[in-house]
């Protein structure tokens, strides 16, 4: 406990040193000032019920295609499992979010330059800690994220599979939740369970379905129809179709090479699908008011725990 508080103070002190005039405002930010000082950032969580259905590939490749369209994209690796973003990209990460929470590093210092213009926060062990922060640490981390707003257009969060606490927290705080499914019974029932829990217990009411490893565009659409029939019948949610990513050997080869398929085979079917999806994201309407801001996301992450 004492250690926690000391760490919190150090984190806050580090932030104060970096940007002292902003600290007062960040600890108790007047909402009307946020819109003047910060620009809106799209916050998108990528989730799935079942593991191994393609979340990390979706996060990375959608991020790269959005970045090719001129967006400044930050990818947060919020999965503590083994198939982490850094492994997929062959990056050697030394520091992660937990070092920011400890006050050893600033958020900027742990952000890595990934391929294709993507910036990456290796969150790893920091993710669980984030759910246990005291008020002082919260203020430090909210401040740290808020400072990034001006440098970002999109934040993508690659979550862990299933309904772990960290997953629901990230989905609840995000503006958009992409649910990745494949055409396997377990993937579909687990996606349904995830949507059910998020809507019933965490007031998430809108989801976008991505059908991965689809045999054809029609196959992807069918998968969506299958799931949306059940959600319409039993849940009070809106489930929109985001699109299909085809089953693609190029993507598998790219994973082997630790290069995102959008860079390894930019004209492959899957890279093409990710490009179309990036265009769709740009057409999504932005939330009105405070929820369009990064600060709202981070504050929300800590609420209702
Ligand atoms: N469109 C696709 N075509 C072919 N294979 C794919 C496709 N998408 C994913 N895969 C395969 O599935 C594997 C798992 O993908 P990925 O690591 O992105 O899933 P994940 O949902 O992030 O997994 P985890 O739940 O373990 O984090 C990839 O290594 C790749 O072999
Ligand atoms: Mg993953």
Automatic annotation (TrEMBL):
<protein>
    <submittedName>
        <fullName>Site-determining protein</fullName>
    </submittedName>
</protein>
<dbReference type="InterPro" id="IPR033875">
    <property type="entry name" value="FlhG"/>
</dbReference>
<dbReference type="GO" id="GO:0005524">
    <property type="term" value="F:ATP binding"/>
</dbReference>
<dbReference type="InterPro" id="IPR033756">
    <property type="entry name" value="YlxH/NBP35"/>
</dbReference>
<dbReference type="GO" id="GO:0005829">
    <property type="term" value="C:cytosol"/>
</dbReference>
<dbReference type="InterPro" id="IPR027417">
    <property type="entry name" value="P-loop_NTPase"/>
</dbReference>
<dbReference type="GO" id="GO:0016887">
    <property type="term" value="F:ATP hydrolysis activity"/>
</dbReference>
<feature type="compositionally biased region" description="Polar residues">
    <location>
        <begin position="15"/>
        <end position="37"/>
    </location>
</feature>
<keyword id="KW-0067">ATP-binding</keyword>
<feature type="region of interest" description="Disordered">
    <location>
        <begin position="13"/>
        <end position="37"/>
    </location>
</feature>
<dbReference type="GO" id="GO:0009898">
    <property type="term" value="C:cytoplasmic side of plasma membrane"/>
</dbReference>
<dbReference type="Pfam" id="PF10609">
    <property type="entry name" value="ParA"/>
</dbReference>
<dbReference type="GO" id="GO:0051782">
    <property type="term" value="P:negative regulation of cell division"/>
</dbReference>
<keyword id="KW-0547">Nucleotide-binding</keyword>
<dbReference type="InterPro" id="IPR025501">
    <property type="entry name" value="MinD_FleN"/>
</dbReference>
<dbReference type="InterPro" id="IPR050625">
    <property type="entry name" value="ParA/MinD_ATPase"/>
</dbReference>
């Amino acid at each position: 406990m004492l250690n926690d508080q000391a760490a919190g103070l150090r984190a806050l002190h580090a932030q104060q040193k970096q940007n002292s005039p902003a600290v007062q405002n960040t600890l108790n930010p007047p909402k009307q000032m946020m819109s003047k000082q910060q620009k809106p950032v799209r916050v998108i969580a990528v989730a799935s019920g079942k593991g191994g259905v393609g979340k990390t590939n979706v996060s990375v490749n959608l991020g790269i295609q959005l970045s090719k369209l001129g967006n400044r994209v930050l990818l947060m690796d919020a999965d503590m499992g083994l198939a982490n973003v850094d492994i997929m990209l062959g990056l050697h990460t030394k520091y992660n979010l937990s070092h920011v929470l400890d006050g050893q590093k600033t958020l900027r210092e742990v952000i890595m330059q990934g391929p294709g213009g993507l910036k990456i926060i290796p969150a790893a062990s920091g993710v669980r800690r984030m759910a246990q922060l005291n008020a002082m640490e919260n203020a430090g981390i909210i401040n740290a994220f808020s400072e990034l707003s001006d440098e970002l257009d999109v934040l993508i969060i690659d979550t862990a599979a299933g309904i772990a606490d960290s997953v629901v927290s990230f989905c609840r705080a995000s503006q958009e939740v992409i649910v990745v499914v494949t055409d396997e019974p377990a993937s579909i029932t687990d996606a349904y369970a995830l949507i059910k829990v998020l809507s019933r217990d965490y007031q998430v009411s809108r989801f976008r379905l991505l059908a991965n490893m689809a045999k054809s565009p029609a196959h992807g659409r069918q998968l969506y129809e299958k799931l949306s029939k059940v959600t319409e019948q039993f849940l009070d949610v809106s489930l929109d179709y985001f699109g299909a990513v085809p089953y693609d050997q190029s993507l598998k080869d790219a994973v082997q090479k630790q290069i995102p398929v959008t860079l390894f085979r930019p004209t492959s079917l899957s890279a093409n699908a990710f490009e179309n999806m990036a265009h769709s994201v740009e057409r999504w309407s932005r939330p009105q008011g405070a929820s369009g801001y990064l600060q709202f996301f981070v504050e929300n992450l800590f609420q209702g725990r």
